[in-house]
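In this supplementary section we document a worked example of the pipeline. Step one takes a protein sequence of length 185 as its only input; no multiple sequence alignment statistics are reported here. Step two produces a three-dimensional model, which step three serialises into structure tokens for compact storage. The input and output of this example are shown verbatim.
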Amino acid sequence: MEGASAELKKVSRMDVVYEYSKWQCAPECQGSWFECATQVLDQNGVEPVEFASSVRELLTNARGKNRNLFITGPTNCGKTFLLKPLQTMFNTFSNPANDKYAFVGIADADIMFLNDFQWDREMIPWRDLLLLEGQPVHFPMPKNHYKDDIYLTRDTPIFATGKAVTTFKGPYNARDPTEDEMMVS
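The serialised model returned by step three reads:
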């Protein structure tokens, strides 16, 4: 299904998932992805139906408060594996750099996949994490390559993995539990 991005403009994200679900697995897979994914979810105490429901809600309703999917856990526990098929289906923005131009390429993405995400104020100011709540956000672009900055208003769903829940670190590494609470809501 080449050009899922082009098709996404005509159909919903769930329609794209449905079309991919009709395909045969790659020969080396032999249908084992689903079995492995179910095992990973079970080992981490997550109901497969609950996980699928969260993915479906995010793809249907897009980014917004209490809808983004952030999977936390230790290294090599299968976090990325669970979300990998989405990168095949959609034009994906992933792993921003750790500088003020971290989000170059986000304007054309169908989904965001932030693998092993760790918040850094150089990458995105804390106030711009309103992006997670579905708010429009301004991203600077290097002027030697782009005429204008990006003002992201699209409803791009956000999927992320990380070792731990993102916490606020202000100037001099000051902590703020109120800001931390915002990240888990």
